[in-house]
Amino acid sequence: MGGGIPMATKYDAIVIGTGQAGPSLAVRLAETGMKVAIIERKRFGGTCVNNGCIPTKTLIASARTAHVARRAGDFGVTIQSTIGVDMKKVKARKDALVHQSSEGVKNWLQNTKNLTVIEGQARFADAHQVRVGNELLEAEKIFINVGGRASIPPFRGIDQVSYLDNSTMMDVDFLPEHLVVIGGSYVGLEFAQMYRRFGSEVTVVERGPRLIHREDEDVAETIKTILEGEGIAIRLGAECIGLEKRGDKVAVQVDCSSGDKTVIGSHVLLAVGRVPNTNDLGAENAGIKIDQRGYIQVDDQLRTNVPGIYALGDCNGRGAFTHTAYNDYEIVAANLLEGDQRRVSDRITAYALFIDPPLGRAGMTEAEVRESGRKALIGKRPMTQVGRAREKGETEGFMKILVDAETKKILGASLLGIECDEVIHSLLDVMYANAPYTVIQRAMHIHPTVSELIPTMLEELKPLE
Ligand SMILES: Cc1cc2nc3c(=O)[nH]c(=O)nc-3n(C[C@H](O)[C@H](O)[C@H](O)COP(=O)(O)OP(=O)(O)OC[C@H]3O[C@@H](n4cnc5c(N)ncnc54)[C@H](O)[C@@H]3O)c2cc1C
User: pTM, whole model, 2 decimals?
Assistant: First the structure.
């Protein structure tokens, strides 16, 4: 071999990234006898496993335990000492779970026949070749599953201060005195409530006029009331956010015009959205189309514009959740291996916000139903009228459902209340079954549960004015 140009190692398929779609797809392809390579540049399992879903929900469980312990007296339970939170132990518990999951993914991949695991940064050399360090890999089929990372906007003064993001938050093993969370959406609110419950002073700074702007106003307002009730300060309409070092603290400018203009925090967490990991992928060498925000453009079956190259998970901009990434894997596998033409557009919007009480969402919001102009019915029930919530002493929130007045199909639901991250699935499944709401209205549900009130709520539907 002359000129120092490495020969490419040939595979049938290359998978870039070990997030929520790549590993399952790589293993599935390898099991069919294909020779497959999977490449990971950091930690196996990607965002969800290492600095997303799994660690945050593990930390939230510790925070909830502290919260419930502080409320023990409400339930007639006496605790003789004060409630303390050992942040080193909280982190160690989280680390153990993350380690187990990440190692699990790594071992699974390494022990799969026909699958080669390569560690390093993958970069396209052309439409069929990928370079990892000095290695050159070649395949007819390449699957991109590179995910995303926290967006760091060019706030004034950002280069003068230190700040945290969802990844660096994972190293925190102490209690910040005052955590300023910039961004009042899903990631920011979960951290905000978690740290308040650990014992920090917490301020949420949001540029928009309300929290989680994608949700209905009543949902956003109720969440604001719940969080303020726990002592979290919320600053909305912070249109000119700037950061400034003040001794060992950080001043966050939150107001452009009047009033108290700065919040002084000991630590700042940036939670203002995500960006796809496509800037250093060499996608241009393969001619892959990327939109202005960095998302890889795909069709309904997740094919890019380049034949044989697919993009799955957060990097294609068609979803931002673990379940959407995993569903992408199922779609690609069904199309390639089963002759089943599953599509992204088959899926129904579904996700949860894991604050306490959680928000379970399916389908359209009320605002989207109104915008669509269709005739609809609405049902709403406060959690104070749900026996199970009263018994458990957690009556914050409400359940809301929207139904098409003509077809009787469920259009969407926002369930904000205890156990609603689970309850939402009873509606989601009826939506997938494409059945009318009357099916669930007539169903006999178990007493006493939150779900038993779903049929009752459906009996009380009113026209959406
Ligand atoms: C704080 C937080 C909490 C979250 N909580 C939830 C939740 O509760 N529920 C939920 O559904 N979703 C949640 N999410 C979102 C969820 O984590 C993501 O949607 C999901 O991980 C996306 O998976 P993915 O497969 O697209 O990519 P990722 O999981 O991001 O994986 C991509 C992988 O590719 C690797 N990679 C990138 N570029 C290269 C390259 N060039 N070469 C080699 N390797 C590369 C990365 O290192 C990474 O391991 C949360 C996210 C955050 C930030």
Answer: 0.97
